[in-house]
Write a structure and sequence with these properties.
- The complex is a heterotrimer of chains A (401), B (246) and C (130).
- Chain A is mainly alpha-helical and 401 residues long.
- Chain A has 14 helices and three strands.
- Chain A has a domain of 275 residues: Formate dehydrogenase/DMSO reductase fold.
- Chain A is globular, with a radius of gyration of 22 Å.
- Chain A starts with a strand and ends with a helix.
- Chain C has 130 residues and is mostly helical.
- The radius of gyration of chain C is 16 Å and the shape is globular.
- Chain C has two domains: 30 residues; 88 residues, no CATH class.
- The chains are: A mainly alpha (401), B alpha+beta (246), C mainly alpha (130).
- At the A-C interface, loops of A face loops of C.
Chain lengths: 401, 246, 130
């Protein structure tokens, strides 16, 4: 068997790809920058967000990136915590990608704040009843842990701590993703949220979304580098694909269980009805986006044999990612668009604040550009990292020295 | 530093404050020209009184469905622009309701209910949202970062986010873009012994303001003689604003 | 905390730079004041150095404890320091709260929320000393 080594990408031959990635990232970043300065100047009034929908498209993007960031680490965890050696070569990329997604997501969250200049306030004043305050620690903590984890992968003196570090990262991110879910889980006032099931549901979703984005990035890098790069193939590829199927099925399972338990509570029956039947765009996103494209389609692609296995896996991963955005959009926006119900036993005849009505929301350019800017941050970090550091595995035999 | 801890643990708070002021006095004496530290450490007793709990009764049976004087009064008092878009703030709003069983229609204003256990305070990451000693739930907009988590958490739609930059604020009521805000029970008025603007302007006396801890107040007396509803009682937030007739 | 640290540093740097460029000239701008409206809370020298500490202390007291009509009330600064031309402390570059801060490169966001104009206060007869 050829020896696997970590290696930088072959520089001379593939520079064109690198600069194309850099230009793409730069365009996204400039767009995000323009959006940010527009928001600073004009206030959030230029976005599509309103008093009814206060968390919009930037939050969909940010939460996708953060949840996926946690899931991506599964590759590293499987290698170091669960001792599956064959995944080991992919662990550095998994950790680095996680860091990139996390930073991308957090920058969107921060730049979308009403007072982004008060970041120092957020770092010095904490209300420990707030899930957000805990998340500040969970997110920064994960970043530190990932950096430490990467160190144990590279420094021979530190490899002894690799398993311990990997376990720490693994546990930490279980808590982190539960925390992300509980941001919504603790919102008792709204019919769309407020459920302890949000924690395991987000965990399952993170496994699926992170695994999918990892497969996509890994494949992209394999193509970028061409021969000599270890693409997932053969036995490992079919195992990775089966894992994707398991994660997707688990995510679907938790969402369905969540909606069912929800429907059991009288008050929430109507909300579930809204999501699955009467919610217009939200119901479409649920059935076609999340259930169809995001779950059933990738399950079919991953569970059945035949055709080009690599290609099928790519399709499945793309579909899961589309399903992720569909889900988050219907979950975050739909949950707010559905009216609050403070007046039990009454229906609203008229209101100076659109009580009892489904709110409308359509994102405008500033929030779309801001969200894409977060993707740009992640892209930049991944591209530069992969290019300048030995994050990707290369077959020594083929590359030579 | 940590506002919430101070707010929650009053005795500690006072201890720490005095300790801090000694320190400030020493530091002041040492470094600052004499005189200035005297200003800085005067820790005057404010109008917020821990023995009180400000509250209100909204009597929907007296509310005229065609009247919106309370809403207008609020907007004038607090310098809020007339709302036209979905992104404009409404600290108070009129709603008309129909009882599903009987078909009976009522109208009433709704504002922040100043819960004893406010979910907006619980979710606020920096402690900007706080409950004053006298029960008024406020946003300290000097440390609000504009995350809107409180708007998400409020079951009554009583929290707003300021989307557009503000130029026409009244001197007494500072407010600006990028922060969360809501009904303050007109703290700047009640601290000076005046009624909230909506209460003062209601022509039908459908709004009764007072101290829930004072058995002799008109508010408590009315609450004892009628049955008041608590909105979303299932959440056990214990709002200070109660409603009659819904 | 760190913001103030940075601001302080910039103040120093700006002062040093100004001193180097113009030799002994200039120094920080002397804003127009109106002693006929009454005295400040403290000596000018102290106010110059300490006004932000006072304001930040007061805002805590007022917002959290309900202290009203305090000596350090923001609107009192506005009423007493507003320029007769703009009726404001922050409308023109020569207005009271603007010149020094520009010179010292301090970014003050107070007027995003606090009304810098004293027009309404004057109309209520609340200008000047109380």
């Amino acid at each position: 068997m050829a020896e696997v080594q970590f290696w930088r990408l072959d520089l001379e031959r593939y520079d064109a790809v690198f600069y194309r990635l850099l230009v793409t990232a730069a365009i996204l970043l400039v767009g995000g920058g323009i959006a940010f300065f527009a928001l600073e100047h004009e206030g959030h009034a230029i976005t599509g967000m309103s008093e009814h929908v206060v968390w919009g498209f930037p939050h969909v993007m940010a939460i996708y990136l953060i949840v996926a960031a946690s899931g991506v680490l599964n590759v590293a965890s499987i290698a170091s915590v669960f001792g599956k050696k064959e995944y080991k070569p992919y662990a550095p990329l998994s950790a680095w990608l996680s860091l990139a997604l996390l930073v991308g997501g957090l920058s969107v969250l921060v730049l979308d704040l009403g007072q982004p200049g008060r970041l120092t306030v957020a770092m010095t004043h904490f209300n420990f009843r707030s899930m957000f305050a805990w998340n500040v620690f969970l997110y920064t903590g994960l970043m530190v842990l990932i950096v430490g984890y990467l160190w144990t992968m590279y420094d021979r003196r530190a490899t002894a701590y690799s398993t311990a570090m990997g376990s720490a990262v693994f546990l930490w991110r279980l808590v982190l993703t539960s925390g992300t879910g509980l941001i919504f889980g603790f919102l008792v006032g709204r019919d769309g949220y407020g459920s302890a099931l949000m924690a395991p549901m987000f965990l399952a979703l993170s496994f699926a979304w992170g695994w999918a984005i990892f497969l996509l990035v890994q494949e992209g890098i394999a193509r970028w580098a061409g021969e000599g790069q270890v693409a997932l193939s053969g036995e490992l590829l079919s195992r990775a694909r089966r894992l994707l199927a398991i994660f997707v099925a688990a995510a679907l399972y938790f969402v369905v269980v969540h909606l069912l338990t929800y429907a059991y509570f009288d008050r929430h029956e109507e909300f579930v009805h809204f999501i699955v039947a009467e919610g217009g765009i939200y119901s479409i996103l649920f059935w076609i986006g999340f259930v169809g494209v995001g779950s059933v389609f990738p399950l079919i692609l991953t569970l059945f044999q035949g055709g080009d296995a690599r290609l099928r896996t790519q399709w499945a991963a793309w579909a899961v990612t589309i399903g992720a955005f569909s889900f988050l959009y219907l979950f975050i926006i739909g949950g707010q668009a559905y009216p609050l119900q403070p007046f039990a036993g009454y229906e609203v005849v008229a209101s100076g604040f659109d009580d009892g009505q489904v709110a409308s929301y359509s994102p405008r350019w500033p929030e779309i550009l801001l969200a894409l800017g977060g993707g740009g941050v992640a892209l930049l970090i991944v591209s530069v990292g992969v290019r300048v550091w030995p994050l990707t595995p290369v077959l020594r035999e083929k590359i030579g020295r | 530093m940590n506002a919430t801890v101070q707010e929650r643990e009053q005795p500690l708070n006072r201890e720490r404050r005095s300790w801090l002021s000694h320190f400030a006095a020493l530091a002041g004496a040492a470094m600052v020209a004499p005189g200035v530290h005297l200003l800085a450490i005067t820790s005057a007793e404010g109008a917020a009184d821990a023995k009180k709990r400000w509250g209100m009764l909204i009597d929907a049976t007296r509310c005229d469905p065609h009247c919106a004087r309370c809403v207008i009064a609020c907007h004038e008092e607090n310098g809020l622009p007339t709302p036209t878009r979905a992104s404009d703030v409404r600290w108070i709003r009129k709603v008309a309701l129909r009882e599903k069983r009987s078909g009976r229609e009522v109208s009433l204003p709704v504002m922040c209910l100043h819960c004893a256990n406010p979910p907006c305070r619980d979710v606020c990451p920096t402690g900007a949202t706080f409950k004053r000693k006298d029960g008024v739930v406020l946003v300290d907009r000097h440390i609000c970062i504009g995350c809107r988590y409180c708007v998400m958490a409020c079951p009554y739609k009583a929290r707003n986010f300021v989307y557009a930059p503000v130029r026409e604020q009244r001197n007494e009521v500072p407010r600006g873009a990028g922060c969360a805000e809501g009904c303050t029970l007109c703290v700047h008025r009640i601290d000076r012994g005046r009624l909230p603007a909506c209460v003062e302007q209601c022509p039908n006396r459908a709004l009764i303001f007072g101290d829930l801890n004072d058995p002799s107040s008109e508010l408590v007396q009315r609450l004892q003689s009628i049955s008041a509803t608590i909105l979303r009682a299932d959440l056990r937030l214990d709002p200070a604003v109660r409603i009659h007739g819904v | 905390m760190s913001a103030r640290f940075v601001a302080g540093r910039r103040w120093f740097l700006a002062a040093a730079a100004a001193a180097m460029v113009s030799g002994a000239a200039a120094g920080p701008p002397r804003p127009q004041v109106y002693p006929e409206r009454g005295p400040c809370l403290a000596e000018a020298e102290q106010m110059r150095r300490e006004h932000h500490v006072l304001l930040k202390h007061q805002r805590r007291e007022s917002v959290r404890e309900g202290v009203r009509d305090a000596k350090v009330d923001f609107n009192r600064c506005v009423a007493c320091h507003a320029s007769p031309v703009t009726q404001s402390v922050a409308a023109a570059s020569s207005d009271f709260c603007v010149g020094c801060h520009a010179y010292a490169a301090v970014r003050v966001d107070c007027f995003n929320c606090h009304q810098p104009s004293a027009a309404a206060l004057m109309a209520q007869g609340r200008g000047g000393a109380r």
